[in-house]
Amino acid sequence: MAFPFVLPYHASMLPPERTVRQRLIELLTETRLSSYQLAQLLGIPERRVEEHLPHVVKSLGRDRSRRFVLDPSACSDCGFVFRDRTKLTRPSRCPNCRSEAITVPRYSIDSEKG
Question: Which fold has domain 19-111?
Fold first, then answer.
């Protein structure tokens, strides 16, 4: 039986030539993106991107030619920057002013010049 409608073409429907983590590394190389942007580009839920990121960081730790860069979240109200945060996800509220207006962290992979 044929489908009565046409399914939209989506990147996640492509045959998996590379793993999600390999595609994450490819997308993040020399480009700063948020987990939401990565999820949209990969066609997977944002939570899955956030689950893969620590593994990407660990993989890059073994590669001296590249380095994972985290552009940390910041409070839009008081300007507090979450520099010492170990989690890669967006915090829920600011420890200074308790505001929930927090920017999303952005990630990239830079090549080490050497």
Answer: Arc Repressor Mutant, subunit A (1.10.10)
